[in-house]
Amino acid sequence: MSFELGLQCRDCGKQFPPQPMAGCDECFAPLEVRYDLEGIGHAVSPDRLRTRAHSIWRYREFLPVADEPSARERPVGGTPLLAAPTLAKALGVRDLYIKNDAVNFPTLSFKDRVVAIALSKAREFGFSTVACSSTGNLANALAAGAAAAGFEAYIFTPADLEEAKIANTLVYGARLIKFKGNYDQVNRLCSEIAQRYPWGIVNVNLRPYYAEGSKTVGYEIAEQLGWRLPGAVVCPMAGGSLIGKIAKAFDELRQLGWVTNSEGARICGAQATGCSPISQAVKAGRDEIEPQRPNTIARSLAIGSPADGFYAARTIRQTGGWAEDATDAEIVAGMQLLARTEGIFGETAAGVTVAVAQKLVAQKRVDPDRPLVLVITGNGLKTLDAINSVQAPIPVLAPKLSNLEAYLAAPLPPAQPAALAPTAA
Q1: Are 136 and 300 in contact (CB under 8 A)?
Q2: Distance, CA of 168 to CA of 96 (rounded, Å)
Q3: Neighbour-count burial of 189, counting CB atoms closer than 10 A to its CB (0-12 exposed, 13-18 middle, 19+ buried)
Q4: What is the per-residue pLDDT for 424?
Q5: Residue 53 neighbours by CB distance under 10 Å
Q6: Confidence (pTM)
């Protein structure tokens, strides 16, 4: 049974029946899905969830999907929430957890969640072709999901996309087309395509449904903490949708009485300094998002005109959170710190999250005595170019023990660029 009631404008409140639709026809603001939350509360409980598999479909009553998941729905989500004591010590907090979507199925990023919901809805609406504009992870996820579900897929990207993300798209048979320009220009083109072609463009006319997949990150965090909310969550921001949907998930669980602690979670945002329109708005205390021309190694976050930026900034302020940004050098150092303390290789967006978390702790924007969750959204194998440039030379020796012993006895080679310095003993 579906508890979806339809769509609603996030600004003027106008309501619409379920349909492929990009924005409100009155005020052009984004739309979001409405649910019968009371009905959900009667239909499912935390105890009932325990009998279900660990994937996004575990929370199907909270999603815009019809009935039981079919055999075609793949086990997306259900990623681990890992205690991270060594990184906690480095950052100066008591309890730190990593929500690790770098191991999400099938393409190693949180975008697998949103694509799974978008494709379920595309099938319901009768689309045979799906498409997206992408900075990389969405391209991978849509190409893989479309291949498995039998959709024809078109992927539109900026021309400077990382080679690993291109290969991880083409292998699934999607038609990838690069465009000269940045993501924002490509995304505007997709809006025109959606008006001319009968395609389901997952982040344009399917965006209200697609975005709901991100809520499952919030449900999983709360359940994995024993149906409690953390003290704060630090989340990378590109279009600004993920951070708002985590907050929406926490709010729904509070309304249903599923989370037991009364203190809310501070929602904190992380951006790269070279593309930081949301964090700059938060720090300046203004509502307006001033578009930027992206210039950062964190290409998955390089959206200069974020579609949900206004709402992300509002969510951060309303929850008592904060936003910060990280330079390219700090991003690489953050990737190294995460890898060397917890054995997790996250992409450049992960470096942004770790570097920003360290700044938020230093600025006392988060309570070091309450659990802190860092959301890692993509795998480091997709952004090897960012890390390769700072790796020390690898020794090549003749295979003799004497050579090895001479090498080990020699002074260490010049130090690599330092990882983020620990802030606490």
Answers
A1: yes
A2: 31
A3: middle
A4: 46
A5: 9
A6: 0.94
